Protein: GST N-terminal domain-containing protein
Amino acid sequence: MGSTVVPNDIVLFNYPSSPFGRRIQWYLQLRAIEYALVEQPVMMPRTDLEKLGVKYRRIPILAIGRDVYLDTRLILRTLEKKFPDGKLGSDKPEQQFIEKLLDKYMVEGPVFQQTAGLVPSAFLKDPSFAKDRKGFLGRNWTPDELDEGRPESLVFVRNLFDLLETTILADGRNWVLGTERPSLADIQAIWPVDWATSMNMPSHVVSEELFPKVYAWISRFQHALKDAAASCSEPVPLNGDEAVSYMKTFKESQQATAEDVVDKHDPQEVERGTLVEMYPSDWGSEHRDAGRLVALARDEVTIMAEGALGLRIHAPRTGFKMTAVEKNAAKGGTKL
Ligand SMILES: N[C@@H](CCC(=O)N[C@@H](CS)C(=O)NCC(=O)O)C(=O)O
Structure:
């Protein structure tokens, strides 16, 4: 693709209003890791991803070279591993425990769904958005349902603010783990409350007066992001075709790497080279990526995706399903 430069070989597929996407953009910004951005539409179809042969329909998606990572939990883990100098995660097991629990609770639990319950019902009055999200959720999501569910969502979100206000931020610390600057734990805890403050919450339920420490923390975090932005470049904008051409340049390096290990003792007992499908187990499960299994670890599954690009797609195992679609390679399936 000529002279377009992809900093650090990183291409992020995101749309700006995605609260999950912000987790990754914030992380990259706080660490001044430069990257290329292929902005995605809020609704399907996402033709750039179709060209890449990625079926997963959630946002964001991050590619490093020809490796595509699904889900912000895995994306953050991967960036921490690939760029260890100046990582945002702690080295102390006790703090890692807090980071991991935050990541699990905020992403795997009901937090997203309940906070999304605060979205103004006007959004769903746009028939194309309502239809698109019906395709995602597998059922109708109506303005009436949103309005009816809002009190329950407010109760949930207020409890989330309360949890942060009365526990980890109660002693007046600046950052969740008492660090000098925002850390991974801040990113993992802040995104739903930051998102919620952009919605219309009645001030007698959630407000700066009721939760001053949480609001002050969000404002500090926004300042830290601004400071970080001043010392790093904007993401390099790419279009889908440029991203595809770029990723093709990695095609020759398709051999297995030292990290490609299929755990022999894995409870699912799927052999390397078996044709499998992987997909999220909550929503959008009909969008399945298929390919040959190349690696299987405790919390990561990697396939060599079907399709001309030879992409390796990685997904976490918690919150995802991986199912064999043919006999195990070792028991008569195709060897990789
Ligand atoms: N567990 C996923 C959740 C991603 C997610 O649900 N993203 C939302 C956008 S914030 C989404 O994909 N919505 C449906 C869509 O955009 O098609 C992650 O951590 O990345």
Summary: The radius of gyration is 21 Å. The pocket of glutathione is lined by residues 18-20, 57-59, 71-73, 107, 136 (CB under 6 Å).
